[in-house]
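Blinded run. Sample ID left blank on purpose so nobody reads anything into the name before looking at the predicted structure. Input follows.
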Amino acid sequence: MEKSLTIALVIFTLIPSVFCQEHQIVNTKSGPIKGVITEHAMGKLYTFFKIPFAKPPVGELRFKKPEPIEPWNDVIDGTQQMPSCSQPMGIFDTILPNTDVSEDCLFLNVYVPNSLSIKKSVMVWIHGGGYVLGQGNMYDSTELALTGDVIVVTINYRLNVFGFMTTWDSIAMGNYGLWDQIMALQWVKNNIEDFGGDPDSITIFGESAGGFSVSILSLLPQNKGLFHRVIAQSGIVNAPMAFNNDKKSFMEDILQDVKCDKADSVSIVKCLREVPSENFSNISLKIFYGGIDDLYIGLAPRVDNDLIKQPLDFRSELDSSLDFFRSLDYMTGYTNGEGISMANTIEVSTSDMVNGKLPDLSKGISQDAVCNKFIPRIAKRSFDSNSKVSEVLCKAYKADDKIRQGKNAVDLIGDYMFASEAIESLFAHSKQNKATKTYQYIISRPTKKTFGYELPEWFEGAPHGMDVPYLFDFKDKDFELLLNTTLTEADRKLKQTMMKFWTNFAKTGNPNSDSLPEWPGFTEAKMEYMNLNLESKSEAADGDIKRRMKLWIEDIPKIVERHRRSDVNREEL
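Blinded prediction complete.
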């Protein structure tokens, strides 16, 4: 079961071979750091690993905002990979640079191509993993940095209980993982010039929960100046799993699992700070899986009236809350088969799958499961169980044939969780905006396997996470093992194309350059996007995509508003 659900959680990469190795010391404003110089076919690379950007969040600093790291005088050894933040482990053992796990994990890695003295644009990667799993050192950025001649930074941030546990009051406010991301960005802003980086040209990018994160950060005006461009990959703040403000009762599960008494918030936090970090692993997974059926993540960002003072949203009408977001160059996109990652949960509950009962999707999905089981879950999660919404969604996505219904179900999930939110954010960013640039992509490179998990034969798209192996370094054998496809010359071309698009955007806000397919900016009228496949090309949204997006962005909100008004009228009577 863990294997079947991790396709929606994790992406990973490997460390490439190098020809020779020397050392280099850089004197930063925080202190001196020793890194590694390696020679590659594309040029020289300077790498600095395991750089601390905050005090260790342990002891009394557990369940608190991160505190800035104090400057150091002795040379820090930046030649060894950082540990992973505390999390459930086991599935990464064969592919991680190391399998060290620690609560003392607030480190970052810096990849500098060719020179430490020539000012370069900077890309900061925020990893995904459902706010439960993941680590910065899985994403080897050697080729990305050298291809685009940009500095790439990968970071750790606190996850699961450590990153998002809250008592729903001022004692433990949550969002520690987001605060960690912000502190990492502050460190980069203050120190990256010492590596040859341009502190006035920083792009944040991330996928899945990393996409949620960069989307959230781009809507917080207090982050102005920390970054200048955003790439949100398969994850937008509007998505149902990006936030948890439902006050789900996971705290009782945590206390029971680690044997802390339920009392007042002060006593709870005091007890939880004394629990060994490894004791939280099982409960973190339990909370994650427990939320899947209701389409939420229990340990996730929330409105805390401190970092986030109100629900974050992209609205069709423009107001000052979007000023910071619209001041940033913006790129977002998703895969055309995002929904396959959740298709298992349509006919079989997550608890059943945890106990080994996996659905057989080889013959498709039934209309009954889609219309009478899954769609009501969507209505409950996002539309107050509105029966009219369920009726409209069933009509739009139903099919009599189980194979066709399976394909429609994949579209339904993808539209609900990824596509409609991306389009709404693109509308909000591009409308009457001549100051900054807006771009959309869709990944359509098909595969029958994703991250070790076999996909049904009828599935024809690109699953969740398909973009990441084309941006970071993969060995050929692992590409074939995980994606069930050989890294062909066409795949290598796609990889080069995507890395150049991404790094061009990071440098100028425009992904275009000579030798690349022309990528037009997004407009509300045509909804242009770059179709990233073995033969990439720009396209405008067809009638089916426009119909489905109109359903989610215009029609369903009108249904909900009419229902709300009728409720108000009844109350007044």
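Unblinding after everyone has recorded impressions. The two ends are 51 Å apart (CA to CA).
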